[in-house]
Amino acid sequence: MTEATELASAAGDQDPRVGLRAVGALRRLLEQLEAVQVRNARARGWSWQEIAAELGVTRQAVHKKHGGGGR
């Protein structure tokens, strides 16, 4: 996780350009990690409600974001 650690450090940089780029990169990384873990949970038989509870969002929000249609 050195990339994430480096990005987290850069997010606090005094130069707004460096900090904002790092925040954007962290956001993209977080989205990728969330998608991986949602697929993992669904593959293990978790319901959308269980996933939503762990993410702190509504079932509808997680289902809309990560699909449904047979996933």
Question: What's the layout of helices and strands?
Answer:
Blueprint: H1 2-11, H2 16-43, H3 48-55, H4 59-66
Keywords:
71 residues; mainly alpha
Specify the overall morphology.
Answer: elongated
Question: Helical stretch count?
Answer: 4
Structural class: mainly alpha
User: Roughly how many Å apart are the termini?
Assistant: 28 Å
Residues in helices, as a percent range: over 70%
Query: How much strand?
Result: under 5%
What string, H for helix and E for strand, traces the elements in order? HHHH
Structure description:
By secondary structure, the protein is mainly α. Helices cover 76% and strands 0% of the residues. It contains 4 helices and no strands. The protein has helices spanning 2-11, 16-43, 48-55, 59-66. The two termini are 28 Å apart. The model has no long low-confidence stretch (mean pLDDT 93).
Brief digest:
The protein has four helices and no strands. With 71 residues, the protein is mainly α. It starts with a helix and ends in a 5-residue tail after the last helix.
